[in-house]
Design goal:
Number of helices: 8
Radius of gyration: 32 Å
Low-confidence stretches: 1-33
Mean pLDDT: 76
Structural class: alpha+beta
Number of strands: 5
Order of helices and strands: EEHEEEHHHHHHH
Largest sheet: 5 strands, mixed
Oligomer: single chain
Helix content: 40-55%
Strand content: 5-15%
Length: 292
């Protein structure tokens, strides 16, 4: 729909939940008539077995008092929000005029002419602190809170991002140590081959160069395999958790910058581990390499 709509999620608007004490459900199907239109979320439409064209009653009172009829004119998918991952998105969107008529305090003549909150978008976001100071000085008692970078959801996600970074660093360091141990074991198994190469006249630098190219090939192949595996598995992970939580939220996304970053980290670490393990063997004397 192309009309302006306001979300009623978590605003105290009661949607079709019949209570045992109530004589009639708050949200009920009525014959289609000339009544205002409303959009409902996909979850609400599915849970209450509604259909486009059905008439429903909405009330701001949990008891269902002063309900107003509306006709379902469309369905929408709620904007994915990680903060509402476990919340059933039983929501509706109304025309602003209908929303005001439904939620306004009838005892307050100015209820439909006043607002409690405004969102302001600045052309230059860097001037937000100065704008907040000027506005607070011009309108004493007005509270100015930044939508981003302040307390609340934004700071929560910043903490989560740092936590994920710490986990990533620990994982990389641990896997590097494990890889180094495997490379040392692999190089020790090739000790005699390295001794024979030294006997036929190959220098340590020549052998290390061959090890470098071999490690580069193996590390690159492993990095490409890991990226391709993640790209294939991400669809399975997303579908499972989207089904589990009934949301359109994307849980895993392998992008080109992420893939390049993984390759840029894994390939040098793999090559370095191979060189360190090989050098620990090649620095020995030829007799030490050939003895059993």
């Amino acid at each position: 729909m192309t009309h302006a709509a306001a979300s009623l999620a978590c605003l105290g608007i009661v949607l079709a939940v019949a209570s045992p004490a109530a004589s009639a459900p708050i949200l009920q199907v009525r014959p289609t008539g000339e009544i205002p239109g409303v959009l409902v979320s996909r979850q609400l439409l599915s849970d209450l077995h509604l259909a486009i064209g059905d008439s429903v009653s909405l009330s701001r009172d949990p008891s269902g008092a002063n309900a107003r009829p509306f006709r379902i004119q469309g369905v929408y998918e709620p904007t994915p929000d990680p903060m509402k991952l476990t919340v059933r998105r039983l929501e509706a969107r109304l025309h602003l005029s209908d929303l005001l008529a439904l939620t306004a305090d009838r005892t307050d003549p100015m209820a439909g002419e006043s607002v409690d909150q405004l969102n302001v978008a600045l052309a230059d976001p860097t001037g937000a602190p100065r704008f907040a100071t000027d506005l607070a000085a011009r309108a004493p008692g007005l509270v100015v809170v930044p939508a981003k970078g302040g307390s609340g959801a934004a700071s929560t996600f910043e903490v989560l991002e740092r936590f994920h970074l710490a986990i990533a660093l620990v994982t990389v360091l641990g896997s590097t140590a494990f890889l180094l141990a495997l490379m040392v074991m692999r190089a020790d198994e090739r000790r005699e081959a390295a001794g024979i190469l030294r006997l036929i006249g190959l220098s340590r630098r020549r052998i290390l160069s061959e090890v470098l190219f071999e490690g580069l090939f193996i590390a690159a192949a492993g990095a490409v395999f890991g990226v391709l595996f993640a790209a294939v598995v991400q669809g399975v992970v997303n579908h499972f958790f989207q089904w589990r939580y009934d949301t359109a939220l994307v849980f895993v996304r392998v992008t080109l910058p992420i893939a390049l970053r993984c390759v840029a980290i894994s390939v040098p670490l793999g090559v370095l581990a191979g060189l360190v393990a090989s050098w620990s063997i090649l620095r020995r004397d030829i007799t030490a390499l050939l003895q059993r």
